[in-house]
Amino acid sequence: MEEKTGVIHGRFQCLHLKHMEYLLAAKKQCDRLIIGISNPDAGFIRTNIHDTNRSRPENNPFTYFERYEMIREAMMEFHVPREEFEIVPFPINTPELIFQYAPKDAVYYMSICDGWGEDKYRTLTGLGLQVEVLWNRPLEEKGTTGTEVRHLIIEGKPWAHLVPKSVYRYITEHHLDERIIRLAREAEEKQNKTK
User: Fold this and answer.
1) Beta-carbon contacts of residue 139 (< 8 Å; ≥ 6 apart)
2) Which of 8, 42, 85, 185 is the most buried (most CB within 10 A)?
3) In what order do the strands lie in the sheet with 85-89?
4) What does DSSP assign to residue 2?
5) Is 41 helix (H, G, I), strand (E, B) or coil?
6) What is the pLDDT of residues 20-41, one digit of tens each?
């Protein structure tokens, strides 16, 4: 029987338990899952009318490599064998480059919770890809977001319960929580100067 390959993508700033629900739901549908990291570096970041905050530096605190390591550790924490998943850049904002990183003949999984999700669906189907929507939920049912986790870190409130244990360990051991706070302060100072 031929191996079924799936592709899924996200920004993962930072990887939380709702992301894991999404990744594991896709993994159940295929033998091998390719996990694409969107906005892999600053050169791929574009402003989107549905979420103008998505492109701001303080909302993209982690590098591609840091997100790669967090995803790898979390997938193994959730007992997905390493040979059953790959992690690649996924330039959703420059879709003509997607096939440099991911196969065209895979099933592309995604979820839709807002206008940005609908845009991505149109982009992927416009490339002639087989796209399966895992769930289509209204924004208020989306659950935990990376924004929520980052805000809790900035406010000094508990956030460990929202992320895989390996992600919490990675962020705190590498002092990435301090980077989140610093970037938020810098953004606030910049905003105050322009007032």
Assistant:
1) 113, 114
2) 8
3) 85-89, 32-37, 5-10, 107-112, 130-136
4) P
5) coil
6) 999 999 999 999 999 999 998 8
